């Protein structure tokens, strides 16, 4: 029924808006403690995120990897898993991209980029898929496993870039070999934003269609909604969980690929900047809906984009943007308990 | 501690409810109901599910606030605002499900509900008081036994003793016999009647079992759709009077006739099945049975003797530890394709939690068995949501499911309609093997009759049916063969013609 869907949508909008307002209020108190007028700070936030073409481009650039890492939490969550391994899968995907990419200089760019994209996705997919397998076959909690695997991924990368694949010509920063210049991708026509944005949007749209329009997506919704019902229906639960974990990990791995081929050109600590953790926040804000992830990622990207400006302008501590993100995360999680509590959103029986 | 002599010389509370009305949104759960619960009587509150019995006692106990109407206790009007208040007035309730702490002893369970318990418990003093209390009771339990070792009937007694110990002298019993064997039920209700006859307590019993009302209650109040449908002394009312009050002028469909089965091949076989429970203990031990086509095998037993684990092993919700399940002679691996090929369908208990997805619509829940097959798919892997909705609408009509429409979430439906939805889904297709657990739990008489008829029709059509039920009457009505399950074992088997309720009841209570 249209009314019911509409009411549910309205409920989500109202509750999320309320969470956002409460977050801003809390953040206002935080900056007021540093002696600033919260309204001035909010204005700068807006300026840095959405006011000019430059700030919008900056925001979109920030949001591109977030769309992909959000999928790493959102897709497994649809099957009932809480995966927080986007950070590690991104790193693994980035490293795989470099390992493959350095050998592909002789290929035409489109082929090289395609192969690197596949390498990053498959590496990320196998990484999170392994956590899914540990859960299904060994009973290991997937949340703990993926959290710890983040540290393992970062340690593996640190080891590789400080020895086996280190580029000793780079003296400022410990980094890996660089991929051939010919395989670096440029920006989307008309915007100073790299192709990662287009890849992120396309991936989210494709997954939205898969989750919404295929029998696989329907089966996953049954599994995520009630595993007992899925068991009773004889659904291949292990396979579905593994596929969802693989898809999610592939998304984050692809984010790693895009960071390499569009931004850095090599693997280094610069991959570990919290895109994976911000993705968790976005997945929850979007209620695990791949289409909604696009919008939410842009919003959160705006916070990241304007965070630097805000910190410099008001001489606020470096962690200020993180404080804002953290407050938003807590508010959104807390607001999840508000669904169904407000009578006006409930259609009356009959 | 607060020392309240459980059996003071004063008469037990006399409670009057006048014109009580309680609304939940647009729903009127209780419509101007008046009842007088006379001191020292055994008063039955009879009605079908959703008739308002629970709402009435919850208003009495202060869980709900009535919108209109008065409660008076011993002639004084009381505004009962919370359960603690009700308790101070001497009102206590024994719930349908046990509220005891299994790992503690009888004495500890009796003490833990006491108000004003000091931080340091003087067990010597407490045990002396409890010992004296037990001596004053017509039924006793060993204070040092662990509750986990008590049988269901003993736990029910302990629940009652606990209320009496806490000073309640107006006891509300909510479906007290639903977890008991027939003999245990008779014993407990007999004791309750004895205590009321001695004018030591007043009892209100919520029930939908006419037999219990006729055998034990002094007075009865019948509710229907939230309204008072009749009341009076049990001795003045006939069985037919009570039924008429309970269901009004609605007609109950006649039981489906049992036809003689033609094909008699073994379709479902369980061989040496061992299944564990959540605690890692053995719930089903070495169970073997065969069910033929056109046969209903009923598994009777008191709740918690391994039936749920058995059903879960058959439905794919739990892995067996050893043993095999065969369908038509082939080992059954509980995959979707086997379920489809063999026509295996399930009606598990608690259908909303066991076989539905709350957040999905009625139509989507109805499609859970068939969503990956044409006509609800196209191009092999895409789902045709229009066809899902049409399929849903069709079944909603055929099975008369009351819903706002195919797109309403299933969790908005009443329990009976959720059950009907699952029934529609499982019986609409090709049914060759049907596994059913407590299909009529909590449904009104009409729904019960309809569901039992559909099961019988499936049997007459040649389906192989395993019926697991805690309701012995249901088993006796439907089953061709009856097996009793006790502590994970099949301890007794009898055919329909030779079935004897008392013999079955004895086996339900223990190995003999």
Question: Could you outline the blueprint of secondary structure elements for this entry?
Answer:
The complex is a heterodimer of chains A (350) and B (512).
Chain A: H1 2-33, H2 38-51, H3 53-78, H4 86-101, H5 109-138, H6 142-161, E1 175-178, H7 196-213, H8 215-225, H9 227-232, H10 237-264, E2 266-268, H11 275-285, H12 290-314, H13 320-335
Antiparallel strand pairs in A: 1-2
Helix pairs in contact in A: 1-2, 1-13, 2-3, 2-12, 3-4, 3-7, 3-10, 3-11, 3-12, 4-5, 4-6, 4-10, 4-11, 5-6, 5-10, 7-8, 7-12, 8-10, 11-12, 11-13, 12-13
Chain B: E1 15-24, E2 27-37, E3 42-46, H1 53-60, E4 68-73, E5 76-78, H2 83-88, E6 91-94, H3 106-112, H4 123-135, H5 152-165, E7 170-174, H6 182-197, E8 202-207, H7 210-216, E9 219-224, E10 227-233, H8 239-247, E11 266-276, E12 282-292, E13 295-300, H9 307-315, E14 322-327, E15 330-331, H10 336-342, E16 344-347, H11 351-355, H12 362-366, E17 377-378, E18 382-383, H13 385-398, H14 415-428, E19 433-437, H15 445-460, E20 464-469, H16 472-478, E21 481-486, E22 489-495, H17 501-509
Parallel strand pairs in B: 3-8, 3-9, 6-7, 7-8, 13-20, 13-21, 16-19, 19-20
Antiparallel strand pairs in B: 1-2, 1-4, 4-5, 9-10, 11-12, 11-14, 14-15, 17-18, 21-22
Characterize this entry briefly.
Chain A is mainly alpha-helical. In chain A, 72% of the residues lie in helices and 2% in strands. Chain A has helices at residues 2-33, 38-51, 53-78, 86-101, 109-138, 142-161, 196-213, 215-225, 227-232, 237-264, 275-285, 290-314, 320-335, and strands at residues 175-178, 266-268.
Overall mean pLDDT score of chain B?
86
- Coarse structural class of chain B: alpha/beta
Question: What about the largest sheet of chain B?
Answer: 6 strands, mixed
Rg calc of chain A = 21 Å
Order of secondary-structure elements of chain A: HHHHHHEHHHHEHHH
How large is the radius of gyration of chain B? 25 Å
Kindly report the CATH topology of the largest domain in chain B. Rossmann fold
Low-confidence stretches of chain A: none
The CATH architecture classification of the largest domain in chain B is 3-Layer(aba) Sandwich
Query: Distance N terminus to C terminus of chain A?
Result: 13 Å
CATH superfamily of the largest domain in chain B: P-loop containing nucleotide triphosphate hydrolases
Q: Largest sheet of chain B, order of strands side by side?
A: 6-7-8-3-9-10
Please report the two chains with the greatest interface, counting residues with C-beta closer than 8 angstroms to the partner's C-beta: A-B, 27 and 38 residues
Give the count of structural domains of chain B: 3
How many beta-strand segments of chain B? Answer: 22
């Amino acid at each position: 029924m249209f009314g019911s869907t509409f009411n549910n949508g309205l409920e989500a909008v109202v509750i999320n808006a309320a969470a956002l307002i409460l977050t801003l209020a809390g953040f206002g108190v935080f900056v007021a403690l540093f002696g600033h007028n919260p309204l001035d700070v909010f204005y700068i936030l807006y300026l840095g995120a959405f006011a000019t073409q430059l700030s919008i481009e900056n925001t979109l650039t920030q949001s591109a990897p977030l769309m992909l890492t959000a999928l790493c939490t959102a897709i497994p969550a649809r099957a009932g898993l809480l995966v927080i391994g986007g950070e590690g899968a991104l790193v693994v995907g980035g490293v795989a991209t470099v390992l493959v990419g350095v050998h592909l200089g002789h290929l035409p760019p489109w082929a090289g980029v395609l192969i690197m994209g596949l390498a990053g996705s498959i590496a990320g997919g196998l990484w999170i898929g392994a956590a899914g397998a540990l859960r299904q076959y060994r009973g290991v909690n997937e949340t703990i496993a993926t959290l710890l695997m983040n540290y393992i991924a970062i340690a593996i990368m640190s080891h590789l870039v400080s020895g086996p694949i280190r580029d000793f010509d780079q003296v400022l920063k410990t980094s890996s070999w660089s991929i051939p210049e010919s395989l670096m991708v440029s920006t989307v026509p008309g915007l100073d934003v790299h192709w990662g944005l287009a890849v992120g949007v396309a991936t989210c749209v494709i997954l939205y269609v898969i989750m919404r329009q295929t029998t696989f997506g329907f089966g996953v919704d049954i599994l995520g909604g009630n595993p007992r019902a899925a068991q009773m229906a004889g659904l291949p639960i292990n396979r579905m969980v593994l596929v969802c974990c693989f898809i999610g990990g592939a998304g984050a791995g692809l984010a790693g690929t895009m960071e390499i081929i569009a931004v850095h050109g090599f693997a280094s600590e610069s991959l570990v900047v919290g895109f994976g953790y911000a993705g968790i926040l976005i997945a929850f804000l979007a209620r695990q809906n791949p289409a909604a992830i696009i919008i939410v990622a842009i919003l959160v990207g705006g916070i990241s984009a304007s965070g630097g400006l805000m910190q410099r302008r008001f001489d606020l501590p470096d962690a200020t943007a993180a404080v804002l993100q953290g407050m938003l995360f807590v508010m959104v999680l807390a607001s999840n308990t508000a669904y169904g509590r407000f009578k006006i959103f409930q259609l009356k029986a009959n | 501690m607060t020392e309240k002599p459980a059996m003071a010389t004063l008469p037990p509370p006399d409670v009057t409810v006048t014109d009580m009305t309680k609304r939940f949104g647009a729903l009127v759960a209780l419509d101007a109901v008046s009842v007088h619960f006379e001191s020292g009587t055994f008063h039955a509150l009879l009605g079908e599910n959703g008739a308002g019995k629970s709402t009435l006692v919850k208003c009495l106990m202060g869980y709900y606030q009535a919108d209109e109407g008065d409660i008076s206790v011993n002639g004084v009007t009381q505004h009962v605002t919370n359960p603690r208040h009700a308790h101070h007035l001497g009102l206590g309730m024994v719930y349908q499900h046990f509220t005891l702490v299994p790992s503690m002893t009888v004495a500890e369970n009796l003490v833990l509900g006491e108000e004003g318990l000091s931080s340091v418990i003087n067990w010597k003093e407490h045990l002396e008081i409890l010992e004296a209390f037990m001596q004053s009771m017509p039924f006793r339990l060993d204070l040092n036994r662990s509750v986990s070792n008590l049988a269901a009937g003993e736990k029910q007694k302990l629940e009652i003793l606990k209320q009496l110990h806490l000073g309640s002298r107006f006891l509300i019993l909510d479906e007290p016999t639903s977890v008991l064997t027939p003999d245990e039920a008779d014993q407990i209700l007999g004791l309750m009647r004895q205590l009321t006859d001695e004018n030591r307590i007043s009892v209100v019993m919520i029930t939908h079992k006419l037999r219990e009302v006729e055998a034990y209650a002094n007075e009865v109040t019948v509710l229907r759709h939230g309204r008072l449908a009749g009341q009076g002394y049990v001795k003045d009312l006939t069985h037919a009077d009570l039924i008429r009050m309970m269901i009004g002028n609605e007609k109950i469909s006649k039981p489906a006739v049992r036809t003689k089965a033609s094909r008699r091949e073994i379709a479902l076989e369980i061989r040496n099945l061992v299944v564990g429970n959540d605690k890692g203990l053995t719930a089903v031990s070495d169970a073997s049975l065969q069910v033929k086509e056109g046969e209903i095998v009923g598994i009777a037993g008191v709740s918690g003797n391994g039936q749920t684990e058995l059903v879960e092993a058959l439905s794919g919700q739990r892995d067996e530890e050893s043993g095999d399940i065969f369908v038509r002679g082939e080992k059954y691996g509980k995959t979707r394709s086997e379920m489809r090929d063999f026509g295996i369908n399930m009606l598990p208990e608690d259908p909303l939690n066991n076989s539905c997805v709350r957040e999905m619509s009625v139509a989507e829940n109805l499609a859970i068995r068939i969503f990956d097959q044409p006509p609800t798919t196209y191009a092999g892997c895409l789902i045709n949501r229009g066809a899902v909705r049409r399929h849903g609408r069709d079944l909603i009509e055929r099975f008369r499911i009351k819903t706002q429409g195919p797109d309403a979430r299933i969790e908005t439906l009443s329990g009976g309609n959720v059950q009907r939805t699952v029934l529609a889904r499982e019986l609409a297709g090709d049914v060759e093997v049907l596994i059913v657990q407590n299909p009529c739990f909590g449904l009104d008489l009409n729904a019960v009759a309809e569901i039992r008829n559909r099961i019988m029709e499936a049997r007459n059509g040649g389906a192989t049916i395993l019926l697991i039920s805690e309701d012995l009457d249901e088993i006796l009505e439907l089953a061709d063969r009856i097996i009793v399950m006790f502590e994970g074992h099949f301890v007794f088997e009898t055919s329909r013609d030779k079935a004897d309720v008392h013999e079955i009841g004895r086996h339900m209570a223990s190995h003999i």
